[in-house]
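User: structure tokens for this one?
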Amino acid sequence: MSGNAGVPAPRATSPSYGPCVLLKHGEIFLKGHNRHRFTERLHDNLRVALRGIGGSTWIKTAQNVTVLGGQVPQEALVERARRVIGFNSVEPAQRVPSTLEEITRAAVEVLRMLSAERPGRGFAVRVKRRDKQFPLTSSRMAAHLGARVLEELPGLHVDLTRPDIALAVEIDRKETYLSWTRHPGLTGLPVGSSGRALVLLSGGYDSPVAAHRAMRRGLSCEFVHFSGAPYTNPASVYKAYALARELNRSQPPGRLHVIALGKAQKQLAVAGAGRLQVVAQRRLMVRTASALAARTGAQALVTGDSLGQVASQTLANLVAVDEASALPILRPLIGWEKQEIIDEARSIGTAEISTLPDEDCCQLLAPPRASTRAGLPQLRAVEKRLDLDEVTAALLDNIQVMLPGEDAGAAPEVSPGCPAPTPA
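Assistant:
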């Protein structure tokens, strides 16, 4: 089924007509006895996405479908629902009682409206009878509706192969839904159904895409950004804030923790890190992020590493970084190519932000040639020249916590310290 997203819903010709939105469930369809828990989480996330929409809304569950409606424009409901991870498709629809008379009247009205709005005259009606007690089978109902449409709208003709207009009719026990436009959903598992994670968020393409992929596997994400302050300008912080704000459109908002790493990076350089500087910095980042995760209730770290993409992401260096973390490090993009990552960034809306100029802390004090096979004994020798516990504690003592909002014009809202974690 396909259609024009801009076509308005038909006006009601009977008090029983009403616009709604059909949300087809994604992966939770495969769950067993605990499917209701995933559905509840999905609906909780939908309610969060509907906050501030400007009117009352309602949510109900049909068979593997969520129905959304309310006293707000249908287009606004569609826009909010498309942000929510866990739905395969988002379909504007008309809701009518499951009687032959009402369904027929609605089908004719919808086809009349669509034929006026769209070029071409070929149409198809596809019926799914969820209520097996309905007197007509799916095929007989489709034939009945097609015949009545031809009778009422003689300018149309049936085209079951490549119709200009495809009308889907889904018959439940009490209500029937007629839809004609299908928007792809974000699919995946409901955010929060798999636990909590802390994302190491830089300003590039990779880490935001990794965060979005982690969310689509059901992880509720908070973010930590390491800046080069006081030796770099705040541009990277503003980029991280904008990226977190964009990512938070697809989940209940997660906080952004900002850590100024510049002085600690200089300490590593003074300690003689040399060609190990980049990997030593990464180890310090994950060590600090692990300590932060203990405060926020996160159970894993997420990074945008792609195997072999840069010197710090060789297998030997990834192993060296893993050894410094007290938590599992998840790498959703480990097998992705750079162009695949860029394409995904464009599709989720983070690419334009990632192209903005900034001063990346990873380039601060980086050697001309970084080691591609950093050895653990050499790294530990450098780290022994520092009091890592003291360095990590100092980094966490000066952390800033930002609350990225959805208003594109809003300035970062900053609060000192690290608030207590919110229960999942």
